[in-house]
Amino acid sequence: MSRGPALEVGPPKDDAELKAYGDLLVQSLGFDSKLLEPWLARQERVSFRLARLGGRVAGGLLILRGGQWFGGRSVPFAGIAAVATAPDLRGKGVASRLLRTTLEELRAGKVPLSGLYPSTHVVYRRLGYEVAGVRVTWKLPTSAIDAQETGLALRPFEAKDEEAIRDLYRERASRGAGQLDRTLPHWKRILDPLGVTRYAYVIEREGKAEAYVFFTQEPTRANHYELVVRDMVAATPQAVRRLLAFFAGHRSMADSVSWIGGPGDPFFALLPNPSHRVDQLRHWMLRLVDVPAALEGRGYAPDVSASLALHVRDENFPWNEGKFTLRVEGGRGEVRPGGDGDLKVTVRGLAPLYTGHLTAEELVATGLVSGEGEALAAASRLFRGPAPWMSDAF
Ligand SMILES: CC(C)(COP(=O)(O)OP(=O)(O)OC[C@H]1O[C@@H](n2cnc3c(N)ncnc32)[C@H](O)[C@@H]1OP(=O)(O)O)[C@@H](O)C(=O)NCCC(=O)NCCS
Predict the structure, then answer these.
(1) pLDDT grade, residue 3 (50/70/90)?
(2) What is the pLDDT of residue 1?
(3) How far, in Å, CA of 115 to CA of 97, rounded?
(4) Closest to 296 in 3D by CA, of 334, 265, 258
(5) How many angstroms does the Cα of residue 271 sit away from the middle of ligand 1?
(6) For a 10 Å CB count at each end of the chain, is N or C smaller?
(7) 248 in ligand 1 pocket by Cβ < 6 Å?
């Protein structure tokens, strides 16, 4: 990790450095060069971290701050996006050292969780990230919808609806696991996406928003298109049916509708036939940057009262190493150093356990977790919850 010449890490010093990083994104990640400038301009400059080697921009990444919901509490979370190393400097530890410095900085800034969508597992696993949740794109032929619901009013979204849709999103996300506690930049991507025409509607009952949908129309065959839902929440069965009826109303030209969800979806309960299928399954990885803070920051099932003695291994960060005891009571967790270390877990193994993506028993087969049956069962009980999924991609 410390191999190679000294790397200097920090936000861009000037426009020229930002431009050099932007060029890297076009070359390395296939960014659309026409959208690069507006994309760079809409990010906060202080959120970029560039890696400099001998004064040259060798790589970079973007930190997207927010929270992640677990057990009804939002834990400070840093999404890591747009990781790239100059092609001629790859394999020299640039990305690893850049990420490591970023993680140290996050811990100092009291951000206990970091997540990303990986293009390779190798680099990120070495730094303690592990696959911990999903993002499923579901696809449904519009011809398969038989919902007729017209009872609720559906109308185009207006700027004045922003607060109401944020509330709807927050209400659902806070009851789930893994969904982001969105900040303004997250919402900007939904409200005002770059390079596409977005359509947006709100469903209301007696003037109160009960659902919303943001979508684009992507060409399929001659003049036909798919409704690609970028963001959607429906809080009641009538709102779900109203949305389905709205999608069906596009069926003369729209062959299908796709939307993002978890492994299960309330929509399925209202479909007459199993015509939906997975269009894309993406996994995200999580890193517990600060184990005690992450364990204390999340919520737990209010009916669970238990203690778990952990022995954590973290090859990268000594502050996570060692024995901790997690005591959970009334939905909150408290961590004390020490204890018997009954559950032996690497920091990577802790990520899917923490989110509820895998149980402790399942993780035994990965070699990332070990312990007696009782410790495994206690860990699974403590972290059980809704299936972790994330709507946002970055
Ligand atoms: C992925 C990427 C950022 C890695 O950057 P890098 O500076 O070469 O990474 P490092 O040198 O720190 O790599 C650390 C280890 O991971 C390995 N590694 C890096 N990329 C890998 C890949 N795509 N597949 C398998 N192993 C990989 C390296 O070989 C190295 O292992 P080693 O120490 O045994 O040699 C770089 O390849 C890149 O810019 N790719 C194109 C864009 C991209 O995929 N970005 C990531 C988006 S999530």
Answers:
(1) low
(2) 47
(3) 17
(4) 334
(5) 43
(6) N
(7) no
